[in-house]
């Protein structure tokens, strides 16, 4: 089966972590190898100086984790109508440099959460630019 890397867009333990745990349990039960990235908060704010290897050990480690996976699952809260800054920063780090980003061509489903009634759809809609990095996007909404 495939290797799925789970990226949680919240630095706090809570609902998003619980959703990531549920997805991990489900995917593991289906025969996939699942790894949850330890903390997106360890990534520095992206800038073009990180586009080459060796610029920052945290960015290099993150890109290696994405590169080693077959699928990247984004689990994000919705903040102000979009995904968390942790998810946006991770996407920037994984998709740059533009032609050689390690996420290019990987399926990248999104699970979005919203604190109000609704489906978390805004947080997943904002991640539609994943299409521009040639990834497949599947929004999981219940």
What does this structure look like?
The chain has one domain (3-140): Rossmann fold (3-Layer(aba) Sandwich), CATH 3.40.50.360. It is 30% helix and 19% strand. It has 4 helices and 6 strands; from the N terminus they run βαβαββαβαβ. Strands 1, 2, 3, 4, 5 and 6 form a 6-stranded mixed beta sheet that branches. The chain is globular, with a radius of gyration of 14 Å. The model is unreliable at 129-142 (pLDDT under 50).
Number of individual domains: 1
Q: What oligomeric assembly is this protein in?
A: single chain
Instruction: Provide the CATH architecture.
Output: 3-Layer(aba) Sandwich
CATH homologous superfamily - what is it?
Flavodoxin domain
Overall mean confidence score, pLDDT: 81
Question: What share of residues are in beta strands?
Answer: 15-25%
CATH topology-level fold name: Rossmann fold
Q: Which structural category fits the helices and strands?
A: alpha/beta
Number of helices: 4
**Sequence of secondary-structure elements:** EHEHEEHEHE
Q: What is the CATH domain class? A: Alpha Beta
How many beta-strand runs?
A: 6
What distance lies between the first and last C-alpha atoms, to the nearest angstrom? 25 Å
The coarse overall form would be: globular
The biggest beta sheet is recorded as:
6 strands, mixed
Give the low-pLDDT segments.
129-142
The level of helicity is 25-40%
How large, in whole angstroms, is the Cα Rg? 14 Å
């Amino acid at each position: 089966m495939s290797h799925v890397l789970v990226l949680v867009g919240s630095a706090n333990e809570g609902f998003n972590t619980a959703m990531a745990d549920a997805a991990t349990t489900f995917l593991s039960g289906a025969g996939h190898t699942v790894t949850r990235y330890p903390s997106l908060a360890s990534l520095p704010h992206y800038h073009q100086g990180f586009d080459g290897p060796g610029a920052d050990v945290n960015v290099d480690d993150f890109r290696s984790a994405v590169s080693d996976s077959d699928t990247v699952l984004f689990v994000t809260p919705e903040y102000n109508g979009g995904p968390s800054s942790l998810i946006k920063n991770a996407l920037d780090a994984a998709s740059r440099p533009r032609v050689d980003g390690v996420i290019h061509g990987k399926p990248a489903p999104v699970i979005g959460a919203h604190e109000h009634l609704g489906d978390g759809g805004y947080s997943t809609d904002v991640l539609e630019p994943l299409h521009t990095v040639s990834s497949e996007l599947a929004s999981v909404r219940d």
